[in-house]
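Below sits our specimen:

——
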Amino acid sequence: MKTKFLISILTISLLSCTNDTHQQNESTETDLKITTVKVVNPQQRSFTSVLQIIANAIPNKRVDIHAMEGGFLSELKKDIGDKVYEGNVLAILNNPELKRELEINKVAKEVAEANYLRFKKVITKTPELTTLQEFEKVEATYLMANAKYQATLNRDSLLTIRAPFSGIITARNIELGALIQSGINNSNSIILFELMDVDIIRLTVALPETEVDNISNGMEAVISFTELPGREFPAQVSRMANAIDNRTKTMEVQFDISNKNGKIKAGMYANVELQLQSTNDKISLPNEALIAIKSEFFILQVKNGIVEKTLIKKGLSNSKYFEVLSNEVNENTQVIIEGKAMVKDGIKVKISK
């Protein structure tokens, strides 16, 4: 009987040991399945960031010159590549029908004017010889004839094509004798000349949305061109669109560069280098913490041992750090910098000491 009792106690002890070992093994296996990650807390830092971006060189002014009155091209004064000044004659058109109309209206105006002056003299010296109504009628006839003549004279002056501003003729699309239609009355009228003002070159930059808050009018930049090796051009931010393009998520920024020697050609691509300065009131993280998916930026933070994927707005960045512009991230946030590839949103993790 005593032997059986001892055997029972031994059996119970063995079963208890087996259960304890099994529970320990399960606990160990569970611990092994939980990924260990390394985290950091955001910190306030002040650092500079160099933004390098490609810009497109365009002329300060560019215009397609159309004729504002129809006629045939009788004289060609300027050609492609010519330097012209505001008001210079580029070409002369001839319109015989308009010339005849001008002569007729001139004669009608002169006759009406002579009649008006005669009536004016009469009503001034001997008013009893005419009436005020007759004088006003003659005066109205003269004014209408003069207006018609001046309008025709203005149309005739439009046959002389002049440069609206100083620049370079970059295209000519007409030949002597060609019949030119008025650009005012015909939407398909031919472009006579293309004129560009390249004394000042305007650079247009598509600035990423993430950098918009860090740029302002007057900010210094250094410009270089691949086609002009060894040369750098200082410039300042001249204009900002102050509006984000929803399609590209960029904002247009413009720089003006003096180009009196004409070395910079319209259409060149420029390298723009901007020195941006971070402020102390923003927090930053190491670049290892950043996850970029298309045009969006994320971090993985740990809350109560659980991974949470957080969308953020990225500010300035350099080779080590980037600014975090998000109300959901503060200096107490635990952000994963090692082990991101082994975890995903919602899983449990351990933080390495």
